[in-house]
User: Fold this.
Amino acid sequence: MGSALYLIHTLGCQMNERDSEIMAGQLEHMGYAPAAAEEEADLIIINTCAVRGSAEDHALGHIGRLKQLKAKRPRMTLAVAGCMAQEPKTIAWLKRHAPHVDLVFGTHNLHQLPRLLDEAEQHQEMLVEVWKSAGDIMAEHVPSRRKPGVRAQVNIIYGCDKFCTYCIVPFTRGRERSRQLDDVLAEVQALAGEGYEDVTFLGQNVNSYGHDLLPRVDLADLLTQAERIAGIRWIHYMTPHPRDFSQKLLEVIGISDKVSRQLHLPVQAGSNPILRRMNRKYTREEYLDLIGRARSAIEEVTFTTDIIVGFPGESEEDFALTLDLVREVRFDSAFTFLYSPREGTPAARWEGRDPVSDPVKKDRLNRLMALQYQISWEANQLLLGTTPVVLVEGPSKKEPRIWAGRTQQGKVVLVERESEADLTDRFVPVKITSAKTFYLAGRVAGAPFPASSRSVHTIAVR
Ligand code: SAH
Ligand code: SF4
Ligand code: F3S
Assistant:
């Protein structure tokens, strides 16, 4: 008999992606191998996201559909993990509507997956083991199976203490806990040794990193030290909060060759009364001041953002201020969301009193997207004729004769395939010949950097 097969479906953000890698690592350590399809899997894990109703519906729909497969293959184990598992209402729903689920575990105990699977096997009924908090546990040295390639994600801080009034994350991920600087740097060093060249530091609030450590360190210190690690070419981090973006951090990014000069600064709204009720802890003016300081400290800086439309009580005037801010900052791109009430959050209680109606919400979202698309298109035109380095991720999904990749600043670039050489995971200079709203396109304009560059890469020590 071959090894047991597993499949993990991941919804939500990079934190969930990383968690899925840690689940996969533990499973492979136990002897599991990846399954190619649900029908052959002995274990299916749905790693859920609770940030908006649409993400929850997606997960519940999928879990519901697996009932049939489970009936056909009763020995298959079905597990539900991730942020939704942290919510009592999900557990109640699963017990009622999805008794075919075997195991539910949360965001704080995924490093105990082998034991949980073992216990689920002994259990007749659904086994639910969800911890309210991580307690004192900082799980280090848990095996993980990263995606192959040169890009890797590294957790630096777990949880969120910001409690924006619309957001479920502080409830599903618990309080902020930073990993030790040395542990993070050792992980990056090991990744460089394995050939990874592009790292992304992860946290809900990366610029709170280190406030709970002794000696105290911050994200700027981490970036400065990570940059000295030979073999790492590009460094990203997500997501920073506009409130804690220090001058020191701006300066470190400004002098770095490795750290991306794209700042993702979720603004959420452009009106002060809304920002206050969202508990974002900055005003429109403070946000714009940060944008200005970033422009002076970082040459060629670009900005992207997240915006919520239709927060309870958002008037047409409030919304006009959001449009106005978008015009003023000229973000390269924006993730725009319809406000989705999350049970248990303060804003969900106000929703009943002062909701924005669905048609108004949708109309505002359309107007915001139309404006942002225009600005994105214009911003991309400025890159025509330039020759940025592109990290090729692989053949485009739609068109195998085209390579798809990204610049250090996160722009998607499609590259014409002009030779048989495989450019996957290579850093290639590309001359931009066409610029659309969502991507750039161009032609290879020089030799790819050596695949194994460790020996020739200079170490920037500052
Ligand atoms: N920690 C990150 C964001 C995490 S969630 C930050 O603060 O920037 C990603 C995005 O989802 C948020 O920036 C916000 O724009 C959106 N979001 C969060 N809760 C939401 C809700 N209840 N309804 C709609 N969008 C939401
Ligand atoms: Fe949610 Fe706000 Fe924390 Fe981001 S900072 S995860 S939006 S509570
Ligand atoms: Fe979703 Fe949890 Fe991330 S709610 S956005 S998967 S932290």
